[in-house]
């Protein structure tokens, strides 16, 4: 029977998909073959047809119990002889299937990799002709793959012991590096490669910026209300990062009145099977799941795969994305991207692997366990704690003679004894197993692991630590690639294809959101120009992001637009931006709300991890270039209010503006009327400027009133309480005037103005030369930056600098009143003045 005849006869398919026939021909010709084809392209058909055509029995390695069952059910429905052996079966059922295998009843046997190390299974397999070995999900053998499994590392040895058979390795998610690693790890130096294009033209790739949990919920609600196929007639998968999130998102969708179920590994097997079967049958349109759901899911009419949380690798992302549109019809692959997702993955990368001490703790606990029995117990052993039937030898997966007794413990017992979280405990066991410090028996019985514990030398611990560091670095690199995909403004499809080494055509009818946005802009009629105040404000935000020299986050951008002097003093370059202070009449919360609207409408996106910054999207770039109207909500600002706020900013702040108006000849009462403030507030502004030496008290308080206040100060002998002074003065003299005179009095009597302090002594010792040079420099700097001199340094700080005469930035930073920020801003200039002379 030819391959095409077999295709029609067994599966009723009219044609092969790309790569299937070529891979099948290699197998029929007896050539080892690596097959790399995207999810949904029909890899399993290759080894199924090869098994049916070639004489003998094909052995298929599959990583998941559920995947084995799905494949066996599919084959048996077609009347094809297939079976699987795993720990989900009873001992009696396992024994029956082993007898049937030995009798040559099956053409295909599906097993997990550890089954190859089970003596009874190997004895049954030895009685049949093995047509070939197929390793499905072969990327699991590579430590650089996204789903590395130590069990796969033993396949090369098992393959050699099987003589070795013709071998097919199949995967959907292998980069060129992983492809090479698979070939080396399996020992296939002359393997043929069938690598079909990774392009799935019927899929449209989209990323939506979702800076918060609330934003994700709004996006999900809008998506489900508009997505094609959001009904009982088509399916959709929503992937999340955690079990808790699966339950929460499913509840949210349920509240929208849509039929949905959640799926994760924490559910019991019957519930998982019921939910999976319901989804595959088309009775359940939507499922919210962790990555525990997916392998073997071949429902053809999945119209969308939505990642509510970003995966940690492009391999995992593309594998899950490939479950959409298997019928060849248009489908959407959507990612809700929040920089917080990347930060969470970074946390997991740093904390998912145990330290050398924790590995030693797990190993010591396993060594302390009592042995189950003597390693050389006979085949007549009765069924005991291991749950085995009489006559079945207990061995390691290798089937070797045991040097040590087996011990048994459940995962929860190991967690409790070592005080390690579940993830670290599992990884520790994998690492100890990969380092041959423990060997696991073939199956788990009653939830227990059965282990042979071998020595763990310090050198082995060091080697594990090195491997952990290498894998951690690789995971960071994988996360960077995933984050780049989410943040890029380039073609997303091309980004994916190039990652997998596919340099072929990336064309598709509806490629990705970036390409579609650019196409819409090019083809659309000229956009309506921005006219309203709110529309122009939106463009100012976009222009600021595009022109700022430094990347900024949402809060910092709002400060720049507000004209916040604090941010300007921290980094003067911000003030150089043409939009600095454009929104002085708005509150910070109003500006942040405007930025949020632009984020949610797709004109702006957040990039980065712990401290995300803002970038324009392709849509934002187009809108800015066209000066197009953007629909946003913003409180209108009256012209008089804008002018008042502008004057305040130009003056250097609200306090400085009062001083500026005073210098123009306005009285405190007139300033209050001009600015819409109380007279008391204006006096407090002027009092602060008097204290700073920026305003002369004689310009604020008449001489006769000053005389009365100073007289009372002498009488009371203290200025600590203004109320004590007020009690001795006429009612016509208010607290504002008293405060101004008191501040002037304090300035006249402060240590820097009197004799006697180290600072002034230092200033005097050098004739005041350095102090005066510093003051002159400060004044020039303040004028250049358009700010009051005291914002740079107080006089007291200049005196302290003179006294300390620092020689380095570190010493300058330690001077009281300087600190790290100002040392970085002004330090070199100050040190230059100090070095320039006495």
Keywords:
single chain, 838 residues, alpha/beta, seven-stranded parallel sheet, six-stranded parallel sheet, 38 helices, 18 strands, 50% helix, elongated
Short description:
This protein has 838 residues and is α/β, with parallel strands linked by helices.
How would you sum up this structure, described in words?
- This protein is 50% helix and 10% strand.
- With 838 residues, it is of the alpha/beta class.
- The strands form four sheets. It has a seven-stranded parallel beta sheet with strand order 3-4-2-5-6-1-7, with helices on both faces. It has a six-stranded parallel beta sheet with strand order 8-13-12-9-11-10, with helices on both faces. A three-stranded antiparallel beta sheet has the order 14-16-15.
- Helix 26 crosses helix 27 (654-663).
């Amino acid at each position: 029977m030819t391959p095409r005849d077999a295709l029609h006869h067994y599966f009723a398919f009219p044609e092969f998909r790309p790569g299937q026939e070529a891979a099948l021909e290699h197998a029929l010709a007896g050539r080892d073959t690596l097959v790399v084809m995207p999810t949904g392209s029909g890899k399993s058909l290759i080894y199924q047809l090869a098994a049916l055509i070639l004489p003998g029995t094909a052995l298929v390695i599959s990583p998941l119990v559920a995947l084995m069952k799905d494949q066996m059910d599919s084959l048996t429905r077609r009347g094809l002889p297939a079976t699987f052996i795993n720990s989900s079966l009873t001992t009696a059922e396992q024994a029956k299937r082993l007898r049937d295998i030995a009798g040559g009843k099956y053409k295909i046997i599906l097993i997990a990799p550890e089954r190859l190390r089970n003596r009874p299974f190997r004895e049954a397999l030895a009685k049949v002709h093995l047509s070939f070995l197929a390793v499905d999900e072969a990327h699991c053998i590579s430590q650089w793959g996204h789903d590395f499994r130590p069990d796969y590392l033993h396949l090369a040895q098992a393959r050699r012991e099987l003589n070795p058979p013709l071998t097919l390795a199949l995967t959907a998610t292998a980069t060129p590096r992983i492809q090479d690693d698979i070939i080396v790890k399996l020992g296939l130096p002359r393997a043929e490669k069938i690598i079909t294009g990774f392009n799935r033209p019927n899929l449209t790739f989209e990323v939506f910026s979702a800076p918060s949990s609330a934003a994700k919920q709004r996006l999900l609600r809008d998506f489900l209300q508009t997505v094609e196929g959001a009904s009982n007639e088509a399916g959709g998968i929503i992937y999340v990062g955690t079990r808790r999130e699966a339950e929460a998102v499913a509840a949210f969708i349920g509240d929208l009145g849509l039929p949905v179920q959640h799926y994760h590994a924490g559910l019991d097997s019957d519930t998982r099977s019921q939910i999976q079967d319901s989804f595959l049958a088309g009775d359940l349109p939507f499922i919210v799941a962790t990555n525990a759901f997916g392998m073997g899911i071949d429902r053809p009419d999945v119209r969308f795969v939505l990642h509510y949380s970003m995966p940690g690798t492009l391999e995992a992302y593309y594998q899950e994305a490939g479950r959409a549109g298997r019928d060849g019809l248009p489908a959407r692959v959507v990612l809700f991207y929040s920089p917080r997702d990347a930060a969470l993955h970074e946390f997991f990368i740093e904390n998912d692997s145990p330290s050398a001490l924790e590995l030693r703790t797990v190993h010591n606990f396993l060594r302390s366990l009592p042995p189950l029995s003597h390693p050389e117990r006979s085949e007549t052993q009765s069924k005991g704690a291991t749950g085995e039937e009489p006559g079945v030898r207990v061995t390691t997966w290798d089937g070797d003679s045991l040097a040590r007794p087996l011990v048994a413990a459940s995962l929860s017992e190991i967690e409790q004894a070592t005080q390690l979280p579940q993830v670290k405990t599992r990884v520790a066991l994998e690492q100890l197993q990969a380092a041959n410090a423990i060997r696991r028996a073939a199956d788990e019985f009653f939830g227990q692991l059965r282990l042979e514990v071998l020595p763990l030398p310090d050198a082995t611990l060091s080697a594990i630590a090195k491997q952990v560091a290498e894998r951690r670095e690789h995971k960071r690199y994988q996360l960077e690639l995933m984050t780049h995909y989410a943040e890029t403004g380039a073609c997303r499809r091309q980004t994916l294809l190039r990652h997998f080494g596919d340099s072929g055509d990336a064309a598709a009818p509806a490629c990705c959101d970036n390409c579609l946005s650019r196409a819409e802009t090019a083809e659309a009629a000229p956009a309506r120009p921005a006219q309203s105040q709110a529309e122009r404000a939106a463009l100012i935000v976009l222009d600021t992001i595009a022109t700022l020299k430094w990347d900024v986050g949402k809060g910092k951008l709002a400060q720049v637009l507000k004209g916040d002097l604090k941010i300007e003093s921290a980094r003067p370059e911000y003030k150089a931006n043409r939009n600095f202070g454009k929104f002085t009449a708005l509150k910070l919360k109003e500006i942040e709300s405007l930025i949020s609207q632009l984020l949610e409408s797709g004109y702006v996106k957040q990039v980065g991890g712990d401290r995300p910054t803002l970038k324009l999207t392709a849509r934002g770039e187009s809108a800015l270039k066209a000066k197009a109207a953007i629909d946003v909500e913003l409180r209108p600002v009256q012209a008089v209010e804008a002018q008042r706020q502008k004057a305040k900013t130009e003056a250097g702040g609200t306090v400085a503006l009062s001083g500026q108006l005073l210098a123009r000849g306005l009285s405190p009462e007139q300033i209050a009327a001009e600015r819409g403030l109380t007279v008391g507030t204006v006096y407090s502004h002027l009092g602060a400027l008097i204290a700073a030496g920026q305003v002369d008290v004689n310009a604020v308080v008449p001489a006769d009133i000053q005389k009365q206040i100073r007289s009372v100060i002498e009488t009371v002998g203290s200025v600590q309480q203004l109320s004590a002074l007020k009690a001795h003065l006429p009612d016509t003299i208010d607290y504002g005037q008293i405060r101004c005179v008191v501040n002037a009095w304090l300035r006249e009597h402060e240590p820097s103005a009197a004799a006697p302090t180290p600072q002034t002594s230092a200033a005097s010792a050098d004739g005041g030369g350095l102090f005066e040079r510093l003051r002159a420099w400060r004044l020039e700097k303040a004028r250049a930056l358009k700010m009051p001199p005291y914002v740079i340094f107080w006089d007291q700080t200049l005196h302290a600098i003179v006294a300390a005469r620092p020689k380095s930035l570190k010493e300058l930073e330690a001077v009281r009143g300087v600190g790290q920020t100002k040392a970085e801003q002004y330090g070199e200039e100050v040190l230059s003045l100090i070095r320039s002379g006495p």
